[in-house]
Design a protein that fits this description.
The chain is an alpha/beta fold. The protein folds into two domains: 146 residues, 3-Layer(aba) Sandwich (Rossmann fold); 74 residues, 2-Layer Sandwich (SIR2/SIRT2 'Small Domain'). The protein has ten helices and eight strands. Strands 3-2-1-6-7-8 form a six-stranded parallel beta sheet, sandwiched between helices. Strands 4-5 form a two-stranded antiparallel sheet. Strand 2, helix 7 and strand 3 form a beta-alpha-beta unit. Bound molecules: ligand BJW. The site of ligand BJW has 37 residues, from helix 2.
Length: 247
């Protein structure tokens, strides 16, 4: 970790009132959720870039739904891990903490975090391609056969953001504001290759935040990080957050 010559990170965190946190698939890895670009990221030999696209869905909606059905089933058995819980605790002692997550698994909210911006949607929600309001309970098993259809007859799709699609404008605007206003910006468990999420770390850095990367592997964002922890998120976060006290 590169904190030599700098104020201890825990002291900076203790003093900070606005803390931004960008999370990616790596924070859920210790809950048993496969990451996208790791060795376990392939589904039936397909990388997510091939499945998480509107083109793939247009070509074969049943196939894409099988992928999401498999992930929903897997996620139903996953629970928040100590890293999710440490961030919920951070928000409790530092109410100016906001999580910006690329994850669609809802584990931050399950851990008790309340200020969570979901950049890429949520896998438990579905939406009608014709624009009807939500028609399937978030966690209910999908009706068979796949692909599921809305009562209006149109296809339903997962309410997530695929490549080439724009992010929810309010979520992105809010995330941009958080990045600009943060004194400390934690970048946790993301490969930092998917835009515009990755740029939020650069925005925070340009605006003067102390950027902290927590990831066992180097990423394109490592070069802007003031502090780098090459360890699993749960280990670092329990250490960093433990003992912080509410002002
Ligand atoms: C641990 C750990 C442990 C492991 N502890 N760490 C500018 C330049 C070039 C291209 C673009 C650009 N702007 C936009 C684009 C196009 C595109 C893009 O970014 N492409 C790049 C890949 C090149 N972006 C988009 O299309 C976005 N839309 C958009 O910008 O609209 C406007 C526009 C469109 C077209 C052109 C220009 C503008 C939409 C992006 C949507 C991403 N969607 C997905 C799927 C979501 C639904 C689903 O879940 O199925 O989001 S793809 C997938 O990647 C998912 C993730 O959220 C996202 C990021 O992945 P993440 O979280 O970083 O995971 P991994 O697996 O990559 O990394 C895990 C990390 O954890 C690793 O580093 C491990 O080391 C680490 N780790 N264990 C800590 N225990």
């Amino acid at each position: 970790m590169g904190t030599s010559g700098r104020e201890d990170l825990r002291e900076t965190l203790a003093r900070a009132t606005r803390i931004g946190v960008l999370t990616g698939a790596g924070i859920s890895a210790e809950s048993g959720v496969p990451t996208f670009r790791g060795e376990d990221g392939l589904w039936r030999g397909h990388p997510p870039e091939e499945l998480a696209t509107p083109e793939a869905f247009r070509r074969d909606p049943a196939f894409v739904w099988e992928f999401y059905d498999w992930r929903r089933t897997l996620l139903a058995g996953c629970r928040p891990n100590p890293a999710h819980r440490a961030l919920a605790e951070l928000e409790r002692v530092k109410p100016g903490t906001t999580i910006i997550t690329q994850n669609v698994d809802g584990l931050h909210q399950q851990a008790g975090s309340e200020r969570v911006i979901e950049l890429h949607g949520n896998i438990w929600r579905v939406r009608c391609l014709r624009g009807c309001p939500e028609t399937i309970d978030r966690r209910a098993p999908l009706p068979r056969p796949l692909p599921p259809r809305c009562r209006c007859g149109a296809l339903l799709r997962p309410a997530v953001v695929w490549f080439g699609e724009t992010l929810p404008p309010r979520a992105l605007a809010e995330a941009d504001r958080v990045a600009r206003e943060s004194e400390v910006f934690l970048v946790i468990g993301t490969s930092g290759v998917v835009e515009p999420a990755a740029s939020l770390a650069r925005i925070a850095w340009s605006a003067g935040a102390r950027v902290v990367e927590i990831n066992p592997e180097p990423t394109p964002l490592s070069s802007i990080a003031h502090d780098v922890f090459r360890e699993p998120a749960s280990r670092v976060l329990t250490r960093l957050v433990g003992g912080l006290e509410a002002p």
